[in-house]
């Protein structure tokens, strides 16, 4: 991991250091100068300043071109006979020209020369090499190893360290590990490098050195540099996760290369290039980011970190900011816990951003594209601008304004104010607390796991619950409500609403014929659901219960499930459909139809109608019918009727069905020829037969019995009953204590009035009452009136039979009545008195003669 640190006031683009990297030229120049100096010494152009066997100091004299220069050499064998000296070091200095040569190593003139270091310099340039180079007598390199190169260019010194190798042609290779640059008080240190020397061979200026070094850095490197020069500098790093900080007032160029880099350009209009990777650009002061600054994030998920510590600053991002995905207010490391109130305005940026505030009171303004604004703690103001923005206020009392576009507002950690203009898109609020949509907001989604509520407005809203128990209210408009999990209450409000409860035991409020209820989950997964409807409603799949509300006359229909249908105070029609249903009409004149299945029907107050199916019970000769449903009716709760449905054929015998307590009417008219007998109760009943031969028994009460088709037997029982035989040869049974019944007979079949046991012809008093025939029982107030007897033969009962089996044909009725009248005229004795045994023997004989002449047959007592 490389580390580059330093600061400068120098414009490095003007400092030429190319000679530092031409080592061969410097080496050859050094030896060329050494040979020239050696030639002057060999010619004797010098004086000895001092000399020993291991050192010598001389001054060169004219005519040498180096006259005035001094040479101080150290070694051995100086002034020895017939041997060349061995030089281990020397220093040559020419004060007149400023030339400097310095050497360490081994020079003996007879074998390979060893150079450990050499320096060559002039006033404007000085070059130094450290290492070890072995040179043969021909000047060729035998081996070479260099550990340091140093060049001084005016006031600037550049030092390169590493492990370099020179080949026979003096071509250098190897690795540079450290570079130091010093100029006056300016110091730049580049440590822990791993750069191939060949990459530096074409460098001419220090600025180019920066660029080449940056491109060659492949690790997770750190560059901390302050550029206070008059010109900006450029540093483009290579692969790796680098930290590049180049401060200063001028426009610098920073390049992150590949990797996840942290780039800090400091003041000035910088060009910051993130390159590949998830990069972070640090802006420590709003003023550091000018309108001319260019920040190009490149590939990856790139972030600007606004790290100012001065409250109230607004970072106005320039139009040159591109390919940046997010902006964070916090520290240079991206920590957002600070409370400094800072603002970000990204309205000029041409791509969508994620902007995140800190714990202070931030004002965040997005772009005209799709942004994500996160306020975090503090009382923040978030302005989304155009585009589909996501605004997250976070803790604190925030103000969120999405602007044009389909925006999403995330709330729940404070008392937030949401602002949306009319016609500014279809907007969504995601809330973890109970929330009511304000004006111009369309949709609401509840989040979290707490039982909270959501309320719409006058628009067409989509309101979605969370997994808890929610109350969702649509308000006006055609709304869509989705409960999701939990026991939810969904109320679409005014308008044609679509409601879907999801899992849980949900309740739906329906007030429009256009409302729809959807339960997509079947069985236990979908819960037990209830619809409360103020309009006619039919349960859809997977919805169990329906309750009608209000006072209007409504219809409610079930489905294939085991439903509970409850009416309101109006006149309801409840239809259970398939399943074992419970129908409760409540107040009002209700019609309850359980449909298929064993249903429970509860009429409640009002004149209710029960539609009940007949089903077969048993087989063969034991087969009967029974009611599939159970009826419950309270006392004094109206005049209620049971209408039987269904046809059960091939019965060997009739089944007797008896009205339950508190029911008034039993109608079998829709059962065709199913063999049935109907029995009433103590109330005023109406019993209606079918096409079979029915036995209708009214029991107590003022009953109405209608046999319909078939040869029926009608027994009114106690009370003033109306007996209607209908088609067929019907029998009307009447006895003492049965009250004052009325028979309505309208066909010409063989109908009969049958008086009860103990009744003889003497007990039956016949009289005409207008168009009716009255049959009164002597010594009682009981009587039977046959309506419209005198209107036509079709209205006459063909036979009147007493309990003693005496018969009176309809053709003898009028003759008997006339004889009774004539008897009173002749005797002065009323027919009733004669029947009681009054009168003389002759009168009684005349009385009995009249009876015998009209009543025929005699035998044992009839049934």
From TrEMBL:
Residues 385-405 are annotated as: Disordered. The keyword Hydrolase does not apply. SUPFAM superfamilies: beta-Roll. It is found in: Secreted. PROSITE patterns: HEMOLYSIN_CALCIUM (PS00330). PANTHER family: S-LAYER PROTEIN (PTHR38340:SF1). This is Haemolysin-type calcium binding-related domain-containing protein. The lineage of its organism: Bacteria, Pseudomonadati, Nitrospirota, Nitrospiria, Nitrospirales.
């Amino acid at each position: 991991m490389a580390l580059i640190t330093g600061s400068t006031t120098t414009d490095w683009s003007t400092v030429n250091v190319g000679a530092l990297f031409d080592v061969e030229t410097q080496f050859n120049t050094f030896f060329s100068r050494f040979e020239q100096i050696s030639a002057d010494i060999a010619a004797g152009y010098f004086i000895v300043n001092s000399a020993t066997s291991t050192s010598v100091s001389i001054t060169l004299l004219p005519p040498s071109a180096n006259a005035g220069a001094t040479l101080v050499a150290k070694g051995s064998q100086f002034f020895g006979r017939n041997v060349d000296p061995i030089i281990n070091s020397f220093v040559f200095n020419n004060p007149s020209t400023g030339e400097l040569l310095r050497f360490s190593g081994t020079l003996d003139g007879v074998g390979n020369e060893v150079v450990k270091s050499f320096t060559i310099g002039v006033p404007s340039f000085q070059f130094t090499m450290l290492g070890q180079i072995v040179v043969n007598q021909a000047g060729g390199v035998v081996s070479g190893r260099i550990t340091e190169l140093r060049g001084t260019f005016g006031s600037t010194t550049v030092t390169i360290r590493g492990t370099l190798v020179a080949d026979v042609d003096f071509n250098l290779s190897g690795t540079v590990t450290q570079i130091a640059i010093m100029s006056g008080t300016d110091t730049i240190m580049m440590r822990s490098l791993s750069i191939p020397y060949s990459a530096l061979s074409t460098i001419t200026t220090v600025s180019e050195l920066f660029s080449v070094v940056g491109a060659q850095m492949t690790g997770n490197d750190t560059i901390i540099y302050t550029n206070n020069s008059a010109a900006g500098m450029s540093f483009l790093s290579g692969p790796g996760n680098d930290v590049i900080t180049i401060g200063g007032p001028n426009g610098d160029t920073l390049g992150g290369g590949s990797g996840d880099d942290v780039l800090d350009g400091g003041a000035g209009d910088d060009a910051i290039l993130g390159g590949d990777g998830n990069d972070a650009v640090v802006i420590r002061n709003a003023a550091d980011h000018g309108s001319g600054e260019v920040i190009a994030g490149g590939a990856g998920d790139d972030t600007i970190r606004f790290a100012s510590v001065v409250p109230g600053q607004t970072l106005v991002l320039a139009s040159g900011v591109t390919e940046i995905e997010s902006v964070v207010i916090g520290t240079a490391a991206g920590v957002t816990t600070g409370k400094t109130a800072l603002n970000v305005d990204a309205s000029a940026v041409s791509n969508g951003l994620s902007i995140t505030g800190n714990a202070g009171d931030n004002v965040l303004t997005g772009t005209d594209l799709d942004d994500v604004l996160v306020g975090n703690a503090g009382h923040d103001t978030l302005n989304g601008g155009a585009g589909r923005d996501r605004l997250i206020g976070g803790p604190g009392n925030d103000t969120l304004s999405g602007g044009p576009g389909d925006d999403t507002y995330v709330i729940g950690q404070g008392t937030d104010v949401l602002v949306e203009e009319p016609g500014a898109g279809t907007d969504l609020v995601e809330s973890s607390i109970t929330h009511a949509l304000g004006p111009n907001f369309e949709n609401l989604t509840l989040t979290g796991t707490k039982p909270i509520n959501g309320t719409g407005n006058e628009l067409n809203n989509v309101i979605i619950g969370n997994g808890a128990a929610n109350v969702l209210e649509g308000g006006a408009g055609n709304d869509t409500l989705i409960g999701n999990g939990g026991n939810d209450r969904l109320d679409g409000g005014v308008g044609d609403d679509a409601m879907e409860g999801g899992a849980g035991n949900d309740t739906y409020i329906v007030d429009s014929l256009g409302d729809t209820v959807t339960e997509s989950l079947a069985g236990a997964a979908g819960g037990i659901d209830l619809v409360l409807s103020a309009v006619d409603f039919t349960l859809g799949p997977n919805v169990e219960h329906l309750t009608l509300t209000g006072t209007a006359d409504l219809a409610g229909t079930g489905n294939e499930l085991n439903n509970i249908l409850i009416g309101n105070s109006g006149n309801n029609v409840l239809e259970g459909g398939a399943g074992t249903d419970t129908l409760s009409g409540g107040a009002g004149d209700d019609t309850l139809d359980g449909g298929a299945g064993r249903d429970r029907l509860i009429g409640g107050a009002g004149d209710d109608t029960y539609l009940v199916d007949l089903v077969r019970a048993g087989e063969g000769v034991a087969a009967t019918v029974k009611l599939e449903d159970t009826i419950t009716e309270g006392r004094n709760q109206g005049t209620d009727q049971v209408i039987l449905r269904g046809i059960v054929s091939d019965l060997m015998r009739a089944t007797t069905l008896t009205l339950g307590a508190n029911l008034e009417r039993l109608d079998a008219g829709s059962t065709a020829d199913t063999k049935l007998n109907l029995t009433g109760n103590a109330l005023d009943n109406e019993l209606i037969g079918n096409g079979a031969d029915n036995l209708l028994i009214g029991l107590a009460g003022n009953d109405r019995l209608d046999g319909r088709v078939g040869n029926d037997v009608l027994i009114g029982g106690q009370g003033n009953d109306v007996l209607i035989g209908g088609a067929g040869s019907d029998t009307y049974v009447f006895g003492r204590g049965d009250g004052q019944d009325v028979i309505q007979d309208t066909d010409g079949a063989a109908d009969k009035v049958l008086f009860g046991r103990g009744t003889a012809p003497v007990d039956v008093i016949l009289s005409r009452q207008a168009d009716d025939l009255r049959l009164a029982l002597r010594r009682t107030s009981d009587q039977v009136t046959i309506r419209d007897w005198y209107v036509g033969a079709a209205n006459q009962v063909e036979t009147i039979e007493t309990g003693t089996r005496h018969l009176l044909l309809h053709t003898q009725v009028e003759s008997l009545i006339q004889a009774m009248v004539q008897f009173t005229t002749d005797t002065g004795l009323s027919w009733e008195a004669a029947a009681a045994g009054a009168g003389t023997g002759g009168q009684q004989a005349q009385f009995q003669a009249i009876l015998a002449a009209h009543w025929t047959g005699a035998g044992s007592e009839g049934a």
